[in-house]
Amino acid sequence: MSRIGKQPIQLPRGVRWALDGGNISVEGPKGSLRRSLVQGVSIRQEGDVLLVERDDDSQRFRTNHGLMRALVANMVRGVSTGFERKLEIVGVGYKAEIKGKTAVLNLGYSHQVEYPFPEGITISVEKNTKVLVSGIDRERVGQVAAELRGFRSPDSYKGKGVRIEGERIRIKAGKSGQK
Fold first, then answer.
1. Which of 19, 103, 121, 175 has its Cα between 20 and 30 A from that of 144?
2. Is 161 helix (H, G, I), strand (E, B) or coil?
3. 23 phi and psi, to 5 degrees?
4. How many Cα atoms occupy the beta-carbon half-sphere of 122 within 13 Å?
5. What angle do CA 139, 140, 146 make, to 5 degrees?
6. pLDDT tens, 125-176?
7. Which residues pair with 103 in a beta bridge?
8. How would you class 40 by CB atoms within 10 Å of its CB: exposed for 0-12, middle for 13-18, buried for 19 or more?
């Protein structure tokens, strides 16, 4: 049996879930999320935990068991506490600011990069070089962080660019360092 799939999902106080047809919806203090269930996977509640179970042990159902459990656990955590990704902007003159519902990034180009906030995502900036992307949907938070990083990925010679906080960039030696 899947090691991930058999783990129970703890329901925090104030989080409700409902199953209607092939969809699961989870509501909590931060909002609500909805996702369709994969065929062959069922969810039931025992006390204050959710259990994800599969119909049989065929290869197709086994592959989706752990996936569905992880997705539902992320939904429960998202509506109760939320998710966030921290980005760092490194480089002389590189900075970010918020104008209304748009993030404006100066990344060494001849123009400013403007990124409108997607629905359900909050972007905040502190000290012009620290960007915080937060929301209740883990997948969308990671996607927005990846899109912001994609505007100027860290280069391997000077390390300048947008990086995920804690990301280590291996700096190459360059022409003068080779012998």
1. 19
2. strand
3. -120, 145
4. 8
5. 95
6. 999 899 999 999 999 999 999 999 999 898 888 889 999 988 888 888 878 7
7. 98, 115
8. middle
Closest CA to 96 of 132, 150, 62, 66: 132
- In the chain the domains, ranked by start, together with CATH numbers, are 9-80 (3.90.930.12), 83-164 (3.90.930.12)
Tokens 């992320």, located at residue: 74
Determine the length of the chain.
179
Q: Give the model confidence (pLDDT) of 76-135 as tens digits.
A: 999 999 999 999 999 899 999 999 999 999 998 899 999 999 998 999 999 989 999 999
Helix (H, G, I), strand (E, B), or coil: what is residue 19? Answer: strand
Q: How far apart are CA 17 and CA 3, in angstroms?
A: 23
